[in-house]
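Sorry, explain these tokens?

___
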Amino acid sequence: MSYITNLYTDPSCLKQYPTWNSSSTATTTITQSGTNWTYAHTGGGSWAIMPKDRMELMKPGYVVVIAYTATDEPIVSVENSTAIASGTTPSGVTWQAAKINKDDGHSIYCLHDGSMTLKAMAVYEADEWPTVQQLLPPISMVQRRNDAPAVIGGERR
């Protein structure tokens, strides 16, 4: 059995994180939504949620997995990364896995107006990706990205 360690210290995203806006006329409001926080952006442009300890934890080669719900469908990504897999759970939570490309930024970057409730976040060392991948929702729920490997019936393809 392989063991993996989530390096992120707030995996359920219970803490409120600071935000950034690309436009001085845009606003991002933060409200508590149950045990999580909802970030709502209006005014156009791009915006970002900046998780705690992101610069120290999100190193090149590491894999970041985020889970969230959104309204008005802002385009969401992990800054300075390459998306390697994504999908939606049966309960409607969207998840993304991304590999960090370089030491810079590492926010949860959003484009367009909308709101997002961050549900979970994990950071794993690069060599743990095969094990992490087996824990993600089944392939029928996954939107494959480029040449990202997938797990089908417990077997890597």
Observations:
- The longest strand covers residues 114-124.
- The longest helix spans residues 129-135.
- The CA atoms of residues 134 and 154 lie 7 Å apart.
